[in-house]
Amino acid sequence: MSYKLFIPGPVHVSDKTLNAMTSWVMGHRSKDFVNLYQAIQPQLQQLMYTQDPVYLSTSSAWGVMEGAIRNVTKKGVLNIMSGAFSDKWNDVAQRCSLPCGALQYEWGTPADPEDVRRELSTGKYDALTLIHNETSTGTMNPLAEIMAVVNEFPDVIAIVDSVSSFTALPIKKDELGIDVLLTGSQKALALPPGLALLSVSEKARQRAATVEGRGYYFDFLEFHSNYEKGMTPSTPVIPLIYALQSKLEDIFAEGLETRYARHERLNNLVRAWGAKHGLSLLPPPEYGSKTLCCFRNDIGIDLEGLRKAAKSRYQFDIDGGYGKIKGKTFRISNMGDETDETITELLANLDVLVPEFTAK
Ligand SMILES: *Cc1c(COP(=O)(O)O)cnc(C)c1O
Which residues does this entry mark as bearing N6-(pyridoxal phosphate)lysine (predicted)? Predict the structure, then answer.
């Protein structure tokens, strides 16, 4: 059975993107590959608002999330935690035997820049991880305010995950002072899974050069020396790079401001739909994500029943809540290629399903 994904990742992939992947594979040491990588590089830099190189990693986002902390942590990494993905980053740091500290919030609570200042002031840290848009809880952290604090501590390398927010709103890497900005392919970019993008500052690379045990596959210095030749350290997932090139065409044809406005508008449609059904967002609304809504299941919807009916009757799926908040919350994505038409149709179908699967 095939159905359209309105879960917050992986998200629905357009036919145009899928078709782009069917081009014949090229040699990754060929001039053709160098031309492809060099052609998309300026667009990637523009989307990340950076002068730093953007590397392509054949992995899901976790590859470079783990790689980044292994490249730059010496004294310790502070993990800002407020949901499944940000909590796990601390777990990953421990599994890598890196010195690390947890700044833990309740799920759905945005990080407070004052707490970040207090933690960094201990002098225990030379790296920090932050998830801009915590997908598990639909919460957007106040990125600019947090980065302003981090920039008071020049020894701290800031690693920011934009997996579910990249290109949905501007994230100005250089202006904000982000050292490592990373994203994956299957969420905000609406590509199939398997490719990650990361931009690394010179400061982060200089740090990496002094760190032992960086490994090979995600080594910043390997990424960089290959990047200078227009290449990747090992054989990349070439079909996904074709898909990325096609997606970049779409993004620049739409225009960035139009794309940002579309995400905001569609997100507001979903929020208004929730309000109409008596559903509140898990986070405070001003920190609600622009790419998905995580609603509290205030009205006791039978989410499993609803999702089954959504798939069989209307050929779509939404998410029934992540990890420990499964069933207590549910999530609807508006990231990627969604339009006023697709979201309006989705919400009309949910208007039928929600009363049917809510106990009277
Ligand atoms: C999905 C997600 C990840 C993990 O991505 P993978 O592609 O599964 O490695 C990391 N961070 C955020 C914010 C995510 O939404």
Answer: 187
